[in-house]
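Hey L., structure's done. Input below.
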Amino acid sequence: MQIYKVKNNSKDHALIGGFEDTVKTAVVENFDTHQKIAEKLFSEANTIKLFANIIYEMVSEALRGEKGIK
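Output:
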């Protein structure tokens, strides 16, 4: 569902629409495997937001590559 939001909405709308929450959930679900990274991401309120923006950009770039858009 989040991929659909990234494909079909502006960055601001996609991030408001639960993208950040999905990133948070993924980090929490993988806490045992990547504990040190997770601790750093949740150490300050803004850090997870910055991480969600980076993930958004990576997903968006990958989707543009699928469409042949540069």
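The chain has one domain: 2-64. Residues 2-64 form one domain.

-- N.
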